[in-house]
Amino acid sequence: MYRFLVVIEKATGNYSAYSPDLPGCIATGKTVEEVERNMHEAIEMHVRGLLEDNLPVPASYAFSEYMAVAVP
Q1: 55 near 37, Cβ under 8 Å?
Q2: Domain locations in the chain?
Q3: CA–CA separation, 28 vs 32, rounded Å?
Q4: 39-71 tens-digit pLDDT
Q5: Nearest C-alpha neighbor of 18 from the set 31, 32, 28
Q6: 3-class DSSP state for residue 57?
Q7: Burial class (CB in 10 A: 0-12, 13-18, 19+), 44
Q8: pLDDT recorded at residue 55
């Protein structure tokens, strides 16, 4: 099993998603649920393609953290 951080961003009229550890692996959707579903499929296809081509699957190094900043 592989785990990858996925970043979902609100765009104009839809949502987009990408994984910093999988360059070029992206997805879009009209809703958050749709983009999550599409990104899951995109990651599966991306990893399957790497394995079929005998290429290494990148390790997942990216992580996320919210930071609170007090600005006077």
Answers
A1: no
A2: 7-52
A3: 9
A4: 999 999 999 999 999 999 999 999 999 999 999
A5: 28
A6: coil
A7: exposed
A8: 96
* Helix/strand/coil for 45: helix
Q: Which residues contact 44 (CB under 8 A, 6 or more apart)?
A: none
Summarised one tens digit per residue, pLDDT across range 27-42 is 999 999 999 999 999 9
> Residue 45: what pLDDT?
97
Q: How many helices and strands, by DSSP H and E, does the chain display?
A: 1, 3
Measure Cα distances from 57 to 4, 35, 69 in Å. Answer: 11, 22, 36
Tell me yes or no: is domain 7-52 CATH 1.10.60.30.
Answer: no
